[in-house]
Amino acid sequence: MTEKNNRPNLKIESNLPIRTVGIETERERKNFTDLPPQNYIHVWWARRPTPATRLAVLSSVLPDTVDDDTLLRWMGMNPDNKPRDSSIAEHIRHKKRTKDSASGPIYDHYGYKKAWKQSPSKDTLSEIHDTVRQTWDGELPTVLDATAGGGSIPFESVRYGFPTVANELNPVASVILKAVLEHPRINGDLSDEIQKWGEEINKRARNDLSEYFPSKQGEETHEYMWAHTITCPDCGLEVPLSPNWWLDKESANEGVAVRPKINESEDTVKFEIVNLPDDIDKSTYNPTNGSTSRGKATCLRCDVVIEGDEIKSQAQSKNLGYQLYGVHAAKKSSGKRNKRYFRAPETKDIEGFERACNAVSESVELSTILTEERYIGPADRSENYGIEQWREMFSPRQLLVHWTYLQKYEEIKATVQESYPQEEANAILTYLAIAADKALDYNCRLSVWDSTVPKLAHLFSRHDFAFAWSFAESNLTAEGLGYEWVLENTLKAYSDFHNLSGDSEAPVDVFQGDAASLPIDAESIQAIVLDPPYYDNVMYAELSDFFYVWLKQYLGDIYPDFFSRELTDKQSEAVANQAEYEDIAGDNSKRELAKNDYENKMTGIFQEMHRVLDDDGIFTLMFTHKKTEAWDTLTKSLIEAGFAVKSTHPVSTESPLSLHQAGKNAAESTILLASEKREENDEYTLWSDVKNTTRTVAREKARELDQQGVEFTKVDMVLASFGPTLRVFTEKYPVVNDEGEEIRPQKALDEARGAVSDYLIENYLNEGVKQVDSKTEWYILSWLIFEARRFPYDEARRLAIGVGEDLDSLKKEHRMWRKRSGDVLLRPHSDRVQDINKSSDNRSGRKPVDPEALSFATALDKVHAALHVYEAKGATTAWNWLNDRNCGSDPQFRATVEALLRILPHDDDDWNLARDLAAGETGELLNLDLDSAIFQEQEDEEGQKTLTDEF
Q1: Angle 493-496-500 from CA coordinates, rounded to 5°
Q2: What is the pLDDT of residue 106?
């Protein structure tokens, strides 16, 4: 065994069972009512799933002598129904493939409950600790997460009994870390105490708020549906704004909706409840057609289109109003379950709201609370609509309700602090504040009504402050809902944390501050596992201000160091925030300045990791791969900080089957990138001396993974090859070209991608593909590598550069792909070839391929035209068409047909047409030498194509 100084190689420096862990990740995320507690205790963004997190922690401290079965068993994936002659990985992949035909609970099918529910037993923990101590000179290594966010990484470290350090710059996340890592491990179960004081808060708040939520006899209101309103500039109608009028949409033609009616005498709109199709047919009234679309509105009376600028102008002048258009209520009945229903607004509903508005305007304290100006950054979508202060995130009644619950919390705070030891009191009060935060998330002007469930949807279903034309208001005082629900949900999170980690004796330190300046001794950490913020993916500080301004009211005296600022720290945050350069960019690009700032901050964080890491330590970086730029930016920062990359492991965080059916791929993998401290190299290395080595190690890694079969897809092979490529690059750093110019890591990654592509072509495609034109080659390689019609734009761009093509030209001139939500979607023949059954004058000019042409710009054009002719005219016409164009003797045509048969999924229409073209009379003309295996059904453990099938 090779050693780095005093410790053996680690498991993360070897191969990992990534596909099996990916299956377990899918299981975890499949059911959103059965997620780990860290996923629902409080809103936090971009949490990593437990299996990937657990893999990162354990493989970073265990030696590479631990086999995959042992690792999976220690991770909680220990099926009790596994055949003796099968490995755990084989068993889990087999169960994944057969789960649709299984009966009974899914955990019976797999033979174990979800891994996140499995805490290691004392015996297992003893096994792990003994092995780890042998690896780390007799001691348990300390695990650090310096950008801990919602606590997924340190929580798993705690569960496995390792000394743990968690740091976070953001105060909201720091509160979450306290609630996740510390409070559930205080002696005893505090569930009853949290519930007791939560119920006391709710009782007192209900008493004060009852007059603002009046109900009819035998009824209780649950939610109110509101539309923002503007005045029509043409006819003066007060126009309610909503994208649709559904309340409970059972299908496209059935459900409960409201129907607007014009009140001519008052220039207003009233609403009535309609049931489709009983009361009215969709052809007569379609609730899907609301009053707003694409940022504009249509007057419900004069049909004039109200432009977006006019709406924003009225909103910024504080002229947006509120109109109640529906009420979700429940009928009270003794001894029976309440039946929920919808009704139209009534006078008492409006009166209750108006009383709340008056109460807010008459209260000095309520008139001045949360008057801080909101930070307006990349995540903002609401300032244009007049929401400039944090109080304006709420309607007057919502503001009154949240303020009242805060007052009742303050009333019981002193009693709690006097009745319990400080640690217990802080835990109880923190969890009650978290419950209040959850109520905020589900009760503001940006919380919308989801009519497809139906339910109230929370604000942060997206990572921004998207303005809502219509919103839903929760009656927090309602029985079984509102505050009772958020308290129950918060209690469940606490109980889960307590049950999962309450027995752990791991020492834990939670710090709040900049990850680039930690209160930790040098070389005191053995394993760093970090999930850093990436570029501009999530504006954590900007988003968390929504909670910060309220938590400061709740917990400012309990955690004074957390809440010393008016808002969260945007300047120290490691994100590419262009808003920070709005006024100072000058002639420079805000985007470039933000990118440089992000890279500098990440370098600072990584330099601090280098300082605190032991010389024998390991640094495992987790991030979600989306753009190839991520590798370049992060690895450049790692190199500058003094690290050498050792390995990379892509762990799929989604179901390969469902992604494939949706036309996506596994590019949303969580990447584990392991690195160590490197020796400084004062001499420059020429790129020409490094280039061939990077290609060689990348190709060798692809071959190695290829031989392991079902654990690795082709995307995995490309991403995993980056590890040895970057290892060579970082060991030789700094690298320059012949002119002395610095070479960035991206250059080495491009070489790795090219080397793996060449390997895959040689082993999984026909030799003739090397002779096809570069445009066709790009299309074929896209299918080959990504194994899906849809994949990230940046990956497509890099691949195009690799074959010498311009990606935008492939889209605009050749229509080989189109864009969907920032991704590339490969076009089938039907999107590219004009209809031969139409006259040339009546064909779509947007489709570039003329099926009657005698020559074509690319081999793909010619093949796609042939598929269309076969489909539209039949085999005989297709034979004549092929013969007239000498397709049987055209090596590029033949190679492209064969390649499509090898790479397209068998349920794809183009694959079926290519198969028919290669058979029968047309097949005799083409005379393709095809292996019968090409036509066999694709059937593997995970519902996707794999390189080999050993099971």
Answers
A1: 140
A2: 87
Beta strands in 146-267 (DSSP E): 164-168, 219-231, 238-241, 246-249, 255-263
Q: How many other C-beta atoms lie within 10 A of the C-beta of residue 876? A: 10
Q: How far is CA 31 from the centre of its chain?
A: 15
**Positions of the chain with pLDDT lower than 70, given as ranges:** 1-5, 334-338, 583, 585-588, 625-630, 653-669, 709-712, 933, 936-951
- Which tokens sit at 88? 């755990």
Position of tokens 């991704």?
Answer: 823
* pLDDT value at residue 669: 67
- Read off the amino acid at residue 190: L
> Is residue 31 within 8 Å of 105, Cβ to Cβ?
no
Structure-token match 């938590």, residue found? 551
Output the six-digit token pair for 137. Answer: 């000179």
Tokens of 234: 């043409």
For residues 570 and 825, give the distance between their C-alpha atoms in angstroms, rounded to a whole number: 36
What interhelical angle do 50-59 and 18-30 show, nearest 10? 150
- Token output for 950: 């050993």
Instruction: Supply the pLDDT for residue 628.
Output: 62
| Cβ–Cβ under 8 Å, residues 77 and 112 | yes
The residues that bridge with 915 in the sheet, in sequence order, are none
Residue matched to tokens 């310096």: 146
> Which token pair is 381?
């979508």
* DSSP assignment letter at 653: -
Contact 225, 326 (CB under 8 A): yes
- pLDDT value of residue 930: 80
> Do the Cβ atoms of 833 and 851 come closer than 8 Å?
yes
The distance from CA 462 to its chain's CA centroid, rounded to whole angstroms, is 10
CA 369 to chain CA mean position, Å: 34
Coil, strand or helix: which one is 498?
helix
SS3 92: helix
**Domain boundary assignment for the chain:** 1-35+62-135, 217-345, 765-935
